[in-house]
Amino acid sequence: MSIEELLEQPYYVMDILPMQVSADSGGQYFKVEQYYLKDIERLSRQYAHVLLKLNCYYDLAFSHDAEHWQPNPEPEEIVQMVNACLSEEPSEACLYITLAEESMLLTLQRDTTHMTLYNPTDELLRLYGQLASSEGLFVWSPQTKS
């Protein structure tokens, strides 16, 4: 499955919040999100740790452009790629991660507090949730409105 096809599949969000914030919420979501985005080192560390742990179970390939892939980079390189994505590097504003055994995609983008998992198996989704929890993060599926 191509990256474009994977981006059209069902997805789950790993986030600092346990569920999607409603558009008509009375809170101050955008101010709080900006507060957390200022602590980019913490977010970067949390997402890097999830990916490192996930790489213990699956072969992962990483790319900043969805064309040039690096399979199973060294742990330090994974941390550097996550940091580059979430920092001020304009050419590396997105990080794509695929699992070799699955038609699955993870994306991490600058200026967001979440990482998105596309087309997970039930087993992978359970593991993803456990790894998120180990880093103080949550996994949820977006609410569909009819």
Gist?
A hairpin with a 5-residue loop joins strand 5 and strand 6 (115-118). The protein has helices spanning 3-6, 29-38, 40-54, 75-86, 122-134; strands at residues 11-15, 60-63, 70-71, 94-99, 105-109, 115-118, 138-140. The two termini are 28 Å apart.
Please give the share of residues in helix: 25-40%
> Which sheet architecture does the biggest sheet show?
7 strands, antiparallel
Identify low-pLDDT runs: none
Q: Judging from the principal axes of the Cα atoms, what is the shape?
A: globular
Derived from helix and strand composition plus strand pairing, the structural class reads: alpha+beta
Please give the radius of gyration in angstroms. 15 Å
Strand order of the largest sheet: 3-2-4-5-6-1-7
Beta fraction: 15-25%
Would you count the extended β strands for me?
7
Number of distinct helices: 5
Strand and helix order: HEHHEEHEEEHE
User: Distance between termini?
Assistant: 28 Å
- Please tell me the overall pLDDT: 91
